[in-house]
Amino acid sequence: MEEKRMRGLVVAAITPMNEDGTLDEQGVASFTDFLCKAGVHCIYPNGTNGESLLLTQAERERVAEITVKASQGRTPVFIQCGSMSTAETTSHAQHAVKIGADGIGIMTPAFFTVDDEALFQYYQAVIAPLPKDFPVYIYNIPGCTGNDVSAALLGRLLSAFPNIKGIKFSKPDLMRAEDYLEQPDRRPDLLIGCDSLFLQCLTLGGVGTVTGPGAIFNERFTRLYRQYNEGDFAGAMETQRQIVKIDREMAGIPGIPALKMLLKLRGVIKTDVCRAPLRPLSGQECTLLERVWKDYAKEEGIHG
What we know:
With 304 residues, the chain is α/β, with parallel strands linked by helices. It contains 12 helices and 8 strands. Strands 2-1-8-7-6-5-4-3 form an 8-stranded parallel beta sheet. Helix 1 crosses helix 2 and helix 3 packs parallel to helix 4.
């Protein structure tokens, strides 16, 4: 069986919720179906945009189970397993194997500052019990967690665990991205967590982007990836410019509530409810997002 990898347009999935803030299980299934039909290249639930640290362990397991089942093998599903404790992270990783996920991502520990040796021991504790051929991606988002995976640490992890396939890096630092790619043992898959650097990541030798807005604006993200792979660099540059334009238009609006409102406008989810402390959007913010969606739908020829 062909090994699945994280590449191309990897959607950092939101977690649909009911009006009362409970998990919308049907919404998770419908959202997954939408992403599969949209042609995204991988689905990545229970990450930052999935409000994972605001969900209970049972809720996260349910989201993972529904996503894997609803995908029906149409699109690879990698479960983000990083949690506030090593024990819970390990539990999520083993659960992902049990339910038949294609692989996992593991975010660094959050809030408590730890050094490279502590980070190595954390990843060792989570990865060592897994099947030796089960794909794993390191998830480095230092702006949120307060901990940073250095290029040297990534190299050490790649040497110790052959099933680590790469890293998702959520920081606009292309010099660090280059350092990640230049490893002595083997070249990792590099995915950027910054929409405005999707094309730049590919030209460096990276393999894709992990993005929340890619769920709503999937036509442009999949087009850019296709154009790049077909050698249409001018076309890819223009598509990247269009992606950056939307990114700048939405700057300053709370990210996860904005994603949910846009998905609601697109008719994909029923509500834009988020868990506190994430706040509802203001009337002005909603008006701006309505305009962004209207303009995008017109430009891409989306009706209904």
